[in-house]
Design a protein that fits this description.
The protein has about 280 residues and is of the alpha/beta class. The protein is about 25% helix and about 30% strand. The chain has one domain: Nitrilase/N-carbamoyl-D-aminoacid amidohydrolase (4-Layer Sandwich). The chain is built from six helices and 16 strands. The strands form four sheets. A six-stranded mixed beta sheet has the order 5-4-3-2-1-16. The chain has a six-stranded mixed beta sheet with strand order 8-9-10-11-14-15, with helices on one face. Strands 6-7 form a two-stranded antiparallel sheet. A hairpin with a 5-residue loop joins β4 and β5.
Length: about 280
Amino acid sequence: MSKLDIALIQMRSGIDPETNLADASDLIRQAAGEGARLVLTPEVTHLVQKDWAAAVPLMHTPEADPVIPAFAGLAAELGISLLIGSMALKQETGRKALNRSFLFGPDGSLTAWYDKAHMFDVGLGQGESYRESDNYQAGERLVLAEAEGAKLGLSICYDVRFAYLYRRLAQAGAQVLTVPAAFTRTTGKAHWEVLLRARAIETGSYVLAPAQGGLHADGRRTWGHSMVVDPWGKVVAELDHDEPGILTAQLDLSRVDEARTRVPALTHDRELTGPGM
């Protein structure tokens, strides 16, 4: 199957996981009703709470979290592949939490999971700073998965700034790169589209980026502007706002091979010497 109907869910998740689950489920149902076979939600789908002390009591281990089986059941009910962009979860041992994405198949089975590899430790100025590594454990592995006949390379948000990750995924066979995100308004306005298009161009891949958007209940502002970029770097679909909604597109996977044939950069790696080598 070279063509695939997909939908990106844009959200404004808040501080109540049950409300976020209901909001996400409504949008996922609508997307499936419109024909999407692969549906993707943004980073931290079920909880956006920057107050760590308030967030911890709402988090569970992967085995105990009630939201995970709810999303699995929804995928099975609708007969779709469903990527939950990420959830904040406790570990069985260790103080730090996990920022983990989940891919469910049309039968509700868990087909892949990925832990965010790069922590957003930045100072953006004017009092806006983030230290994800204080509270989250970085992932240690790249993940390639299959959904609806497409090979997906999984990532989360800040990962998008690290081109090597996507190059390795593409060289391993990924045709579609997923970038669920909760980009800040500051960085989103400046860098979001440029980074997504760059990752598509560099790898000759589709890039799917479902996003959080707007002013959240915890006071955080995210950029929105969920986006689909084709393997030639063209933005083929975009929500030009930060409101919750659905973005649909049809992927033609034959365009991946076409782009990689025209510019076969993935085969042109060289071992170079120099500073730090």
